[in-house]
Specification:
The complex is a heterodimer of chains A (119) and B (105). Chain A is mostly beta strands and 119 residues long. Chain A contains no helices and 11 strands. In chain A, β4 and β5 form a beta hairpin. In chain B, strands 2, 4, 5, 6, 9, 10 and 11 form a 7-stranded mixed β-sheet that branches. The chains are: A mainly beta (119), B mainly beta (105).
Chain lengths: 119, 105
């Protein structure tokens, strides 16, 4: 059974750092397109970052240079290191899988992790 | 960035209604479009990928279609479980982008 189980999140001061984790089961993260998507509570969805293949990565402009996506194939886990956090980074962060013909369509999602950036 | 514009933002409907949600891309995205359903407090659920392909396990009352840069999600007969927010998403060009959502109430 495919599952994505997230950990991390919490209350962080502006400028702080955090690492979000997404542990996968039922498939290998190294073989799929793994993304992070965030959602301000009560608002819409925003795609943030992706890792795929030989650790090819992409970030949206607002997080590039502050966020780093990575994966540990031995632990079958994807990470999002978030540094220099801003109030506007407050959101629920989801990891999501894209696979096969629907590489950009997310067929499995984690349960979400709330990151609150506040002083 | 490619802008995805959904309409309407809110849709009032009743069980048994036929519903259509529209999504317009600001440029050609070929057929690289997905539709999701999201309920409060839950992660989104994939309904449709590649504009018109039904995700495994999704009821056949959901369908997707395309005409150029205009995309449509149709629910043929609304069921009680379908009251939710629906999002479109393009995955043709980075950064991948979502529509603003349509709340079916």
């Amino acid at each position: 059974e495919v599952q994505l189980v997230q950990s991390g999140g919490g209350l962080i001061h502006p400028g702080g750092s955090l690492r979000l984790s997404c542990a996968a089961s039922g498939f290998s993260v190294g073989n799929e397109y793994m993304s992070w998507v965030r959602q301000v509570p009560g608002e819409g969805l925003e795609w943030v970052s992706i890792i795929h293949g030989e650790r090819n990565t992409y970030y949206i402009d607002s997080v590039r240079g502050r966020f780093t996506i990575s994966r540990d194939d031995s632990k079958n886990t994807v990470y999002l290191q978030v540094n220099n956090l801003r109030v506007e980074d407050t959101a629920i962060y989801y990891c999501a899988r894209g696979t096969g013909i629907s590489w950009g369509a997310f067929d499995y999602w984690g349960q979400g992790a709330l990151v609150t950036v506040s002083s | 960035d490619i802008q995805m514009t959904q309409s309407p933002s809110t849709l009032s409907a009743s069980v048994g209604d036929r519903l259509t949600v529209a999504c317009r891309a600001s440029q050609n995205i070929n057929s690289w479009l997905a539709w999701y359903q999201q309920k409060p407090g839950r992660a989104p659920k994939l309904l449709i990928y590649k504009a018109s392909s039904l995700q495994s396990g999704v009821p056949s009352r959901f369908s997707g279609s395309q005409s150029g840069t205009e995309f449509t999600l149709t629910i043929s007969s609304l069921q009680p479980d379908d009251f939710a927010t629906y999002y479109c998403q393009q995955y043709d060009t980075y950064p991948w982008t979502f529509g603003q959502g349509t709340n079916v109430e």
